[in-house]
Amino acid sequence: MAAVSGRALVAEGDRAAGGLLSAYLRREGFQVLEACSGVEALSVLRRGTVDIALVDPLLPEIDGVELVRRVRRESTIPIIMLAASREEAARIAALDAGADDYVVKPASMPEVAARLRAQLRRARGFETEETVLRAGELELDLDARRCTAQRRPVDLTRREFDLLSALLRYPGRVHTREQLLELVWGTDSISPKTVDAHVAGLRRKLGSAIRIATLRGLGYMLDFGPAQPGVQPGDGGRPAGESG
């Protein structure tokens, strides 16, 4: 079976380090473009000529976090932050800006390539023949990235939309928070409370249009039947029996 590959942007302020990584990724089957500044990287990403990006947060002209923030206004392309800082605040800033994964340097090149392939698999997993998902009074248009509940448009964040689409694809299936992190965020290295917060946001915005049930000690599922023992229809996003 052929390995997943694609067109990757390596946006690295250190030209030598970027060149070494790019050479390795080419040997792994990726087509690689390189950028040494935030301005150059933004230009490449706006042209739509790559499938995924590796971004150094310390880029000159436009730093990596600001670069991700600007790209997210226009695109859902997978972005991995490749950073030297292990600080939680730096990781949170990158993920909140819209990065899909955060890898700490020095990371092995095989690991970086594996992370790229994982993100590409996740992104391509959303490209299915079914472009409109429906459940009850809810409709999700995957191509237009538009949500309608009870015939009214609902403004969802990018993550809320992807989380809801993941749940809608498998109504009745229980998803653990770790599974949802891997499916929607492409990583399970961030706090599971991230899922809780986004579920709470969906419940607040969707109201009675759909029910996201919590199964005690297990996770979340879409549920269209009567309440069952151990299942709570709405709890602010916290799985029953778990502390915040």
Structure description:
There is one protein chain. The chain has 244 residues and is an alpha/beta fold. It has two domains: 119 residues, Response regulator (Rossmann fold), CATH 3.40.50; 101 residues, Winged helix-like DNA-binding domain superfamily/Winged helix DNA-binding domain (Arc Repressor Mutant, subunit A), CATH 1.10.10.10. Helices cover 39% and strands 20% of the residues. It is built from eight helices and twelve strands. The strands form three sheets. Strands 2-1-3-4-5 form a five-stranded parallel beta sheet, sandwiched between helices. The radius of gyration is 19 Å and the shape is elongated. The C terminus is likely disordered.
Provide a short characterization of the protein structure:
The chain is of the alpha/beta class and 244 residues long. Helix content is 39%, strand content 20%. Helix 6 (158-169) crosses helix 7.
The N- to C-terminal Cα distance equals 43 Å
Q: What does the main sheet amount to? A: 5 strands, parallel
Structural class: alpha/beta
How many domain modules?
A: 2
Please tell me the overall pLDDT.
80
**What fold name stands as the CATH topology of the largest domain?**
Rossmann fold
Strand order of the largest sheet: 2-1-3-4-5
Residue share in helix: 25-40%
Order of helices and strands: EHEHEHEHEHEEEEHHHEEE
CATH class of the largest domain: Alpha Beta
Spell out the CATH superfamily of the largest domain. Response regulator
Radius of gyration: 19 Å
Shape: elongated
CATH architecture label name of the largest domain: 3-Layer(aba) Sandwich
- How many β-strands, per DSSP? 12
Q: Spans with pLDDT under 50 lasting ≥5 residues? A: 225-244
